[in-house]
Amino acid sequence: MKIYNLIPRLDNDCHAMVDIPPINLTKRNKYSNYPYDTIDWLRLYKKKNKPLPDVLYEGTLSLDGIILKENFCDFLKEYNLKEIQFVKIIDKQIVGYNFMFFNSDLTHYIDYEKSNFILVEDMLGDITELDTIVPANREGVIQAY
Predict the structure, then answer these.
(1) DSSP state of 113
(2) What's the CA gap between 15 and 45, in Å, rounded?
(3) What is the sign, positive or negative, of the torsion defined by CA atoms of 36, 59, 16, 98?
(4) Interatomic CA distance for residues 117 and 115, integer angstroms
(5) Which of 14, 95, 114, 137 has a CA between 20 and 30 Å from the CA of residue 37?
(6) Residues 119, 58, 104, 82: is their CA dihedral positive or negative?
(7) What is the H or E stretch that residue 70 is in?
(8) Nearest 5 degrees, angle CA 134-CA 140-CA 145?
(9) 28: how many CB neighbours lie within 10 A of its CB?
(10) In tens digits, what is the pLDDT along the chain, a chain of 145 residues?
């Protein structure tokens, strides 16, 4: 089995950041739409004079989504994505980017009886399978997670 992660490179010396996330973000139901059409609370941290990548790293704060260049968002819209929301970022340094929120709970669509879940530890790309039995049902997988 192969495992793929879509993660931005951390060595490009630029990422988005937020000092204090707005209450409407931190208190929102994870599986509901973000209530606004734009985001004005993200800022850009950039050390080197390099072009911005298609996917921006958002720092250590989990925002339940990723920051993507608009043309990459247009590409993704061609696929049948479930309850994905694109919100335009309005900041003079982060021009042409959207925040893609994952607003769906896909855990109800998984056939747990036919799936084999494992727990892994990822230490800077060194992935180790943990010796933990994960039950073959939704509640067990969520509990293990």
Answers:
(1) G
(2) 5
(3) negative
(4) 6
(5) 14
(6) negative
(7) helix 70-76
(8) 75
(9) 16
(10) 555 555 555 566 666 777 677 888 878 888 889 989 998 888 887 776 777 888 887 765 567 788 899 998 988 888 888 889 999 999 888 889 999 998 988 888 889 999 888 888 877 778 888 888 899 999 998 888 7
